[in-house]
Specification:
509 residues; 78% helix; globular
């Protein structure tokens, strides 16, 4: 294994060297860095040209300039010695990257996690219901999103997800047409999701349409959009649904101890919702992290105490349920700060540009809302594009696995469908997805260049575009170096993940 990793690292290093040389040469011939000075009428024109020539080493050929840059980049293996040059403004590239990387990571990490979870879940469900109306609908929608250009999706989100939605929040009056439309959409969507006989689908359509229209009507009458919140009733009902769903997925509803343990964590969350209210008023990030860990620990402890014939199943189901329900409590507390945040943003809470609201003064909850509202649109744009590929790959992989002999053998032994899908099929279906995830990390970083430009998000994308526009090779090469190392690293991790997901795979030196 060690020799294999070393060999892969050596090959990856050669790929990075070749690619970086090619990119540097392309940037070097893409324009004239001295163009802005050649036609200048300033008295110090010659001095400015000399400074630019010295800064970018323009007095030597481009290949030589590349090796000068490479000599500084090699020093990055030594802490504190990294030298990637300076931008035309005189700022060290390492300093520019230190401020740009966190913004891009926030955007790409959230988009990647959401796309993986949603795409894999939807792909597996459609595979299990192959050739159904749900399968055909998801296939059509997936190909539709996959074919959309990310810049066009971003512009549409700015128009309808921010500008018009902010206008609606100024006077949140829901028309009868909108209520009827939501009812019709609910009546069409839920029968697709639940399936069953035509009689069952008809009943589901009637109930879903009535509930969807009724909920939207209630939200409008109660002014929920101005003063949102979940409240204990909705937290309890949603938490109970989560407990039942997680237990059915991980342990099966026949494991009553796991179900009781999961439902107990919902009760504990409702108690903590009020008991910790004074503490949450002075919340910090580390306090929320500690409370999250405490919620997981309480769930695991509840599963251990309830025990059952498989204590590990009870602990996993209760721990995950506790974590998700704690997220509901956290969401409710954020919603309580929404009116103050709307006032702080002058009635325009959904941002269209930037990563934060200038001069915003607020507590942890207001700052958190500002963080999420600035991320919601660019993250959604990236998710809509990438979730389609995960859906299609996970569906194809699951269909292939479900037809294997060991799956039929598992069914022949009398195992439940839940056990067959989760323990035998799902893990093997993840093996091809490991490659897709590794490839998509680099693709998302590339897509973030366009998305950040549309939303004026000051990340690596903005740094890259500015460097190209001004014929400034150093920030371009710094961004490329980060993206290249990330792509190479995740591809190596994908290869190593094969042996972890499938014991039959062995890496030989």
């Amino acid at each position: 294994m060690f020799s294999y990793v070393m060999r892969r690292l050596g090959v990856s290093l050669l790929v990075l060297l070749g690619a970086s040389f090619l990119v540097y040469m392309l940037v070097a011939v893409s324009g004239d860095p001295l163009a802005e000075f050649r036609e200048s009428t300033k008295a110090n024109k010659d001095q400015l040209i000399a400074q630019r020539v010295e800064l970018l080493h323009l007095d030597v050929p481009a290949p030589v300039r590349y090796f000068i840059w490479l000599g500084g980049a090699v020093k990055c293996v030594i802490p504190g010695q990294c030298d990637l040059g300076s931008t035309l403004a005189g700022q060290p590239v390492t300093t520019a990257l230190s401020t740009a990387i966190p913004s891009t990571l926030q955007l790409v990490t959230g988009a990647t996690l959401i796309a993986i979870v949603v795409g894999v879940a939807v792909g597996i469900v459609t595979a299990l219901r192959q050739y159904s109306a749900l399968d055909y609908t998801v296939t059509f929608v997936a190909f539709l999103f996959f074919s959309l250009p990310v810049f066009w999706v971003a512009v549409l989100l700015k128009e309808f997800g921010a500008i018009r939605f902010n206008d609606f929040l100024a006077h949140p009056v829901i028309s009868g047409t909108a209520i009827a439309a939501v009812g019709v959409v609910s009546a069409l969507v839920w029968p697709l999701l639940l399936g069953g006989s035509w009689r069952r689908r008809g009943i589901t359509a009637l109930v879903a349409g009535a509930v969807g229209a009724g909920v939207l009507y209630y939200l409008g009458v109660s002014e929920w959009f101005l003063y949102p919140g979940l409240g204990p009733v909705l937290v309890a009902l949603t938490g109970a649904g989560i407990a039942i769903g997680i237990t059915a997925l991980l342990a099966g509803l026949q494991n009553r101890q796991a179900l009781y343990a999961s439902l107990t964590t919902v009760v504990l969350a409702l108690i903590a919702m009020y008991a910790l209210a004074p503490l949450l008023e002075q919340a910090t990030l580390w306090l929320i992290v500690l409370l999250g860990l405490a919620a997981i620990g309480a769930g695991v402890l509840a599963g251990y105490l309830f025990g059952g014939y498989d204590r590990r199943q009870s602990m996993k189901a209760a721990g995950l349920t506790s974590f998700l329900v704690a997220g509901l409590v956290l969401l409710d507390r954020f919603m309580q700060s929404w009116p103050a945040y709307v006032v702080a943003t002058r009635g325009r809470p959904i941002a269209t540009i930037g990563s934060q609201t200038p001069n915003l003064n607020g507590d942890f909850w207001t700052s958190g809302l500002d963080f999420f509202t600035h991320l919601v649109l660019p993250t959604t744009a990236l998710v809509l594009i990438s979730v389609a590929s995960y859906t299609r790959y996970s569906r194809a992989s699951m269909l292939e696995v479900m037809g294997q002999d060991y799956v039929r053998t598992a069914r022949a032994k009398g195992l439940s469908e839940r056990v067959v899908v989760t323990r035998h099929a799902f893990r093997n279906a993840l093996i091809p997805l490991a490659t897709v995830v590794a490839f998509d990390i680099g693709q998302l970083l590339g897509g973030a260049v366009i998305t950040e430009n549309v939303f004026s998000f000051k990340g690596m994308g903005a740094l890259f575009v500015t460097g190209l526009t001004r014929q400034d090779p150093n920030p371009v090469m710094g961004t490329f170096l980060i993206v290249g190392i990330t792509a190479v690293t995740f591809n190596l991790l994908a290869d190593l993940a094969y042996s972890a997901l499938d014991p039959r795979v062995r890496v030989k030196a």
